[in-house]
Structure formats: structure tokens, C-alpha cells
Write a structure and sequence with these properties.
By secondary structure, this protein is of the alpha+beta class. Helix content is about 15%, strand content about 50%. It has helices at about 5-10, 40-55, and strands at about 15-20, 20-25, 60-70, 80-90, 95-105, 110-125. The chain has a six-stranded antiparallel sheet with strand order 1-2-4-5-6-3, with helices on one face. The chain is globular, with a radius of gyration of 14 Å.
């Protein structure tokens, strides 16, 4: 995360960074809204994807996304705080499956994300 310029630009903060689990927060700004004055879905996805990336990078090996799906369940707007909680479901060999729940500041579920990971032969060091 220290080298993740995109997440930093979006104002994301890491609240929990544990093997197989991560919690990342972001306050929605006016420049994050779409033409309907609701949080752009791509930015909700980016928040979930960042939590996923942190949760699946548990050691010195670089792990990347091989795919992801998201279901948007509630719209949000400027000033709201979104929190993504990523949890490892299973790792088998070099592949993994992770679920991420995005909630607003009231605890309502905003989105559900499922990410598939692939561990590479590259080292993060």
C-alpha cells in the first residue's frame, strides 16, 4: 500500500492488514460522484479491490487479481465513509478466492465483491 499511488490519491486508509484479511476506508468526495450525484461504481470497486489486494498479499510473493465481480446494493454520496472488509475464503496452490463487503458509515451493505487471485513467481522485495 505504501507504493499504491492510486489508492492514496483516492484518500484510502488501511485500518486492518492481517494475513487473509484487510479493512480499508475511504471518504466519498464531490469529485467521486457520477452524473447522478452518487458515488461512481468504479470507485466503490477500487476500494473493494484495494482491500482484496492487501488481504491476498500475505508474503513476499506478488499476488494479483485474476478476476473479480461486484454487486452494487446501495448508492452513497459525498461525505459518506465507505469501509471495505476483505476476507480470504480459500487458497489452493497459487489461486485464491476472497470476499469483500463494502459498508457505509451506518453499517449498511453498499456492495459485495468476490475476487480471484493468482500468486506469481515475482517477489515484492
Amino acid at each position: 500500500m505504501r507504493r499504491d499511488a492510486a489508492s492514496a490519491m483516492l484518500g484510502m486508509t488501511v485500518d486492518v492488514d492481517e494475513p487473509g484479511r484487510a479493512v480499508v476506508s475511504m471518504t466519498v468526495r464531490d469529485d467521486m460522484l457520477n452524473g447522478f450525484a452518487i458515488t461512481h461504481g468504479g470507485l466503490v470497486f477500487a476500494l473493494a479491490d484495494t482491500a482484496f489486494a492487501i488481504a491476498c498479499n500475505e508474503d513476499e510473493r506478488v499476488t494479483v487479481a485474476s478476476g473479480a465481480d461486484i454487486a452494487f446494493l446501495k448508492s452513497t454520496g459525498a461525505g459518506q465513509v465507505l469501509t471495505a472488509t476483505a476476507v480470504r475464503r480459500v487458497v489452493s496452490g497459487r489461486t485464491g478466492l476472497y470476499d469483500v463487503t463494502v459498508r457505509d458509515e451506518t453499517g449498511d451493505v453498499v456492495a459485495e465483491f468476490r475476487g480471484r487471485s493468482m500468486t506469481t513467481n515475482r517477489s515484492s522485495g
